[in-house]
Design a protein that fits this description.
61% helix, 150 residues, mainly alpha
Length: 150
C-alpha cells in the first residue's frame, strides 16, 4: 500500500486547514481517522476495511430500499458519507452531489420555473377534479367493485 511516505508507520494525509474561512474553504480531503489509528499502519488498514464494510452495508440497504418502502436515496447518501470519512473518492462524489443538489434547488426557486410548476400542478388538480366529478355523477359514492351492470 502506497502511503506517500518512505518511513514505516506514516501515512500521507492532506494538510489540515483549521482556522480558514469555512464559507470559502472546504474541508481538506483525506482520512478522518483518529491520530492514534493513523499512526499504526495495520490498525489504519483495518480501520479502512471496517469503514468500507459498514458503508457497504448501508449502501446495499439503501439500494434494497429503492423498490421497497423506505428512504432509499437518503440511506445511500448516508453510506457514502460513511465512506467519505475515510476515502477521498467518496468525499469527491459527495462534493459533486452537494453541488448538483444546490444547483437544482436554485433552478427550482427560479420564478419562471415556479410559475410553470404551479400552472402544471393546477392543471393536474383540475383534471383530477373533473374525472372525480364525472365518476361521482355516473356512479355515485359506490365503489367500482360493487357496481352492477347498468
Amino acid at each position: 500500500m502506497n502511503t506517500g511516505s518512505n518511513k514505516p508507520g506514516e501515512t500521507a494525509v492532506a494538510a489540515d486547514r483549521t482556522g480558514t474561512d469555512e464559507a470559502t474553504a472546504e474541508r481538506a480531503l483525506g482520512s478522518r481517522a483518529p491520530e492514534f489509528i493513523k499512526a499504526r499502519r495495520a490498525l489504519h488498514l483495518s480501520w479502512q476495511v471496517g469503514v468500507f464494510v459498514v458503508g457497504l452495508a448501508v449502501v446495499v440497504a439503501g439500494i434494497i430500499m429503492l423498490p421497497l418502502p423506505g428512504p432509499g436515496w437518503v440511506v445511500i447518501f448516508g453510506g457514502m458519507a460513511i465512506w467519505a470519512t475515510e476515502f477521498v473518492w467518496a468525499q469527491l462524489v459527495l462534493r459533486w452531489t452537494k453541488r448538483k443538489v444546490t444547483e437544482a434547488a436554485q433552478r427550482a426557486l427560479d420564478p419562471k420555473v415556479r410559475r410553470r410548476n404551479i400552472i402544471l400542478t393546477s392543471i393536474g388538480v383540475v383534471i383530477i377534479a373533473v374525472l372525480a366529478g364525472i365518476y361521482l355523477w355516473k356512479f355515485g359514492l359506490q365503489m367500482p367493485w360493487k357496481i352492477k351492470d347498468q
